[in-house]
Amino acid sequence: MAQLCQHQEKFKKRDTRVIVISFGTLPAVQEWMRDNCDHFTILLDREREIYKAYGLETSFWRAYHPRTLWLYAKVLLSGKKMHDSHGDDTTQLGGDFIVGKDGKFKLVYPSHNPSDRPPVEDLLKVLDSE
Amino acid sequence: MPIIKKNQLAPNFILQSTEGEEISLQKLIKADKNVLLIFLRHLG
User: What is the CATH number of the domain that holds A38?
Assistant: First the structure.
């Protein structure tokens, strides 16, 4: 997310609106924006209806995969603060989608584990091929 | 769970932003924009 935030101008140049969707509460999302990125429009989907409509799964096994636990351990060892989940479902996975001007998906990238996100360069490539 | 594929029409949605504004995917596309949607996990 930090990477995306740094490259926001590149998306603007490609006529692309970046929309972030969260199922967090308003105060939790506002705190997250202060800590991470406040350039993008953030939409709230508390009931996760749109997560479901976009086929994003919840998976206990994937959320607590050994590799993920290792990432958490690394964060803790590096002395960084782990954020509180605010009582939210930690098994909900995220994903990235690009919708073109014709309303059709140009990229469908549901995360297979919590740290699985497409690199910014790949997102830009998809937009450039339009 | 629906299976979402490339080149399929994106399901429309209307959601409220943190600023209290209602945003619809259809309106964004009508404004001639590509849209990058990033679904977050929990905010931890």
Answer: 3.40.30.10
User: Which residue range is the domain that position A73 belongs to?
Assistant: 2-128
For chain A, 130 residues long, give each residue's pLDDT as a single digit of tens. 778 889 999 999 999 999 999 999 999 999 999 988 888 999 999 999 999 999 997 876 666 677 777 777 887 788 776 555 555 677 888 999 999 999 999 999 999 887 889 999 999 999 999 7
- Number of domains within chain A: 1
Q: Which residues from A are below 8 Å from B40, CB to CB?
A: 1, 20-24, 32, 94
Degrees, nearest 5: CA angle A102-A6-A96: 40
Question: Quick one: closest CA in B to A42, which residue?
Answer: B17
